[in-house]
Amino acid sequence: MNDNEDEELLDETDLDPVLDDVDYNENYEEEFEVVYPAPELNPVDDDYIFNPYHPRWNPGDLGQEFGFEYLTIYHTERSEYLPRIADDWSIDDDTLRTEVSLSEEYAWSTGEDITAHDFVTAYKLDGYMGLGMQDFVDIEEGIYAEDDYTLVIEPREEYSDMEEELWMTEWAETNLTVSEAQYGHFVEDFEDATTEDETQRVQESLINYEVSWDEVMYSGPWVFVEANEQFADQIPNPEHPIAQDWEFFQRTGMYVDEEGIQSGEVDWGDDTPEIQDVPDKYGKGPLPYDGQSFAIIFGNSDEYIRDHPEVRKAITYAVDVPYLTESTATDGTEYDEYSAGIDSLYVEDYVDADVLDAMPNYAPQDTDRAAELLESVGFERSNGTWQTPEGDTWTLNFSVGNWFESHSKVISNNLQEFGIDVDHYVEEMPTWQATTRANLDFDVTVHLNYGQARNYHPYSDFDGIFNDTNLGLFTERTGIVEEDVEVPEVGNPDGDTVTFNIPEELEAMSTADSEEELVSHATNLAWVHNQLLPAAVCFPWGGGHYWVNTVDWNFDLESDDWLTSNRLTHYLLENGLERV
Questions:
Q1: 3 state SS of 360
Q2: 3-state DSSP call for residue 160?
Q3: d(CA 397, CA 420)
Q4: Share of the chain above pLDDT 70, in %
Q5: What residues pair up with 292 in beta bridges, in sequence order?
Q6: pLDDT of residue 494
Q7: Which of 261, 452, 522, 548 is 20 to 30 Å from the Cα of 208, by its Cα?
């Protein structure tokens, strides 16, 4: 790659609008019923980001679920993957070589077939961006299309004996957000790059790729066909084998979030926080579980937080986690007793019971213990305010995204009541993600950093803790927890010190050939997390409820189809929605 080609990488991002290529019913307003969802999804003026590699891309909201389709989806009660774009798959017992046969019924909203080449593009880009299965698969050689409808994924030889369950979590529930037609040239650029600088230039080019709402090729059930200052319309994707039979469209941005539900104008709301005085017409929707946990995340800019587990523990003890859980989480949510790094709803499946019992529980507020821990490091409290060992007022930079405004207020109030000076401020979530999180510009923040939705395996949790591109401890945050750590012997907080190499424990966990071995390594890392407390896990994240207008629309709230995912879209794909 020569210098001129390198300089051009960031400029070759223009796309033509593709909406004219979508064969949709232009009379949808007259011929379809209209529904008003609560989420505010209006891409006018490109306020909503469609590039999944952009820092402001939000993979957790309905923009992802409505616009893009999955290879498979995981059924939480059956503990199995259900086909979606994938028709079938086979995994070799000895090598884990996987062949995925794709359905020929799915197409992009423009009418172009969805093929194995699209998934190869998605997996390769994820790998080159450090977001995929590059640890287990040679991105250049181990992912390829055998033909248009056969996808092949081969692990590296050293991982051919990894657990099949863990192997499937790496690729099975892929959401197809990119097409070969629009993103394939980035794969070519990555493969042509010969130096780290060239690779970084391609990464920057991909991150800054601008895709407007009318330029997107949608693989999922909904297509944006209108966006203005007042509202945006999504119509069923005429190329989607299930959605093409729907006779209703969504008008988003009219009645937003709590105000819309309380007004009674909304037809459904997804993952909305607990709301008081909800109109009776909505009934009581199922409780979603996102497979993640709400956690207090520590930064590395404050030397005392970075270098002293005692300080991280003191901050946690100063927070009333049971009250935080009761006041901000969905009814019935129990606070996390372990802060072990594995979601508390399934931690008992992977950590020895005796070790769980021996773990300190940081959740009940204990300001006396918090004071002891700070004093052990050299802090002193003067006139009710904590001073650093150098005698300066200790001020914490507590920046959060506005998803967690109410949660962070509780935490900030607790810390200030304890005597810690807190600079607490709230930013729009996209701004926070693009600036504060990207630059690690915080001493303390809160986020859903622990637990992997529908990836019920301890490796998924711990890999996120230590290797997540944004908040992982082994990326730019190294210094809070090193690769080699010393902790008291497992199960004995007062025991002799032992040393663990975290990457080695992760490696051993991924290739464990027995349940006993898996639990052993998961127990070790859970103990490390509990003892060093790189972040304080507070409670499993259940979001809120799905609210559905059960008076005007037929909707089976008791259906097991809710268990296939945490998202409303999957229910609609299985059942549709009809006017009463």
A1: coil
A2: coil
A3: 11
A4: 89
A5: 541
A6: 93
A7: 452
28 Rama class: left (phi>0) / alpha (psi -120 to 50) / beta:
alpha
Residue 180 pLDDT exceeds 90: yes
> What's this model's pTM, rounded to 2 decimal places?
0.82
Q: Which of 45, 49, 65 is closest to 57 using CA atoms?
A: 49
The CA distance from 384 to 61, in Å, is: 42
The three-state secondary structure class of 7 is: helix
CB hemisphere CA count around 126 (13 angstroms):
24
Q: Look at 20-29, 210-219, 249-258, 474-483 and tell me which has the smallest mean pLDDT.
A: 474-483
Using alpha carbons, list the distances in angstroms from residue 184 to 56, 169, 189. Answer: 22, 24, 9
Q: What is the mean pLDDT of the chain?
A: 88
Give the three-state DSSP class for 385.
Answer: strand
Cα separations (Å) of 346 from 228, 293, 342, 369, 458?
45, 12, 7, 29, 9
Let me know if 137 is exposed, middle or buried by CB neighbors in 10 A (0-12, 13-18, 19+).
buried
The token duo for 274 is 């607990």
Strand segments (E) across 267-357: 268-272, 292-298
pLDDT at residue 3, rounded to an integer:
47
- Cα of first residue to Cα of last residue in the chain, in angstroms, is 61
pLDDT tens by residue, 432-466:
887 888 778 899 999 886 655 455 678 878 887 77
pLDDT digits (tens, 9 = 90+) for 315-357: 999 999 999 999 988 777 899 999 998 888 888 989 999 999 9
Within 8 A by CB and 6+ apart from 148, the residues are 113, 115, 116, 117
Cβ neighbours of residue 295 closer than 8 Å, sequence gap 6 or more: 446, 447, 448, 449, 450, 535, 536, 537, 538
- What the block records as the tokens of 300 is 């590395």
Cα separation of 407 and 552, whole Å? 34
Q: Is the pLDDT of residue 70 over 70?
A: yes
Nearest to 282 by CA among 38, 575, 61, 66: 38
